[in-house]
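Example record

Each entry pairs one chain with its bound ligand, ISE.
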Amino acid sequence: MSDLRIAVLGVGVMGADHVARIESKISGARVTVVNDYIAEKAEQIAASIPSCRAIADPLDAIADPDVDAVVLATPGPTHEKQLLACLEHTKPVMCEKPLTTDVATSLEIVKREAELSTRLIQVGFMRRFDHEYAQLKAMLDGGELGNALVLHCAHRNPAVPPHFDSAMMVRDSLVHEVDVTRFLFDEEIASIQIIKPTPNPAAPHGLSDPQIAILRTSTGKHVDVELFVTTGVAYEVRTEVVAERGSAMIGLDVGLVRTGAPGTRGGQITPGFRERFGQAYDTEFQRWVDAVHRGRSTGDFTDGPSAWDGYAATAVCEAGVESLQSGLPVEVKMVDRRSIPRA
Ligand code: ISE
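Structure tokens for the complex follow.
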């Protein structure tokens, strides 16, 4: 079986990481094309990889005959056009979140993919591939804890880039807990409220940090998330499920801790998301590459979050940004999934 030839679009922090990952850790794939709006950066990365070229236009990179599949690590506002090009050329694509930046275009992408006979789009919600989240999901699905009732989450970053604003805390950071909720509970989110406590004095002026998000799922499950992106400490992502017959928690850097089980705290807190979720990214990419190889016979070129998952996350975040202004719970507006055959 020949290697999958991948184009990576956007080789800033995450994209450059993915290039290195594919080249050094993933079997069955290599990077043949890179693209970035900063041409010199793409040239520099291409020069470091055998038989890799930089292509200046992202749509040309997607269409290139040396490309079997695409990774989008480009800015969100460019995704719609690039995803449409991948669908047009029937090229499997791993798209970093967000799918697109607004609900209408995300829905359009879902519909356009559903019109094809193949599944081409996977969205890069990497937490689903993290061993601890996978363990939590398996525990819930196994029924050991009974039905889940409540989810408590903390999502803390030591710092964020200077352009990060309050809405980005919802769209860029909270979006992960939105996906985690849908993944763990297998249901949609019906409403969201964002509460703004007294800001951290160390947060840049105008940034409402921390924020508390309250989500309610379609069957009435409660989810609360503490989002705090200027802690100055380390990268902390904790998730605790409270269920009918006990609770389970991950993210203490000691594996899964269950109440009643002997557990110790300790170890190192990871400094950033690339370290905390490094294993998750590796697993996500290997499984995607394997799925794309298999897709030639199955017609399904994905193994993970779908375009629908991307659309749902965008819809919840849009409602979240509305609540950020009003402080009130906002209903999430989504079409019924059954209205789009094959979505
Ligand atoms: C960033 O884009 C991520 O995806 C990280 O996982 C998240 O922790 C961070 O807040 C975001 O800015």
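The first helix runs from residue 13 to 24.
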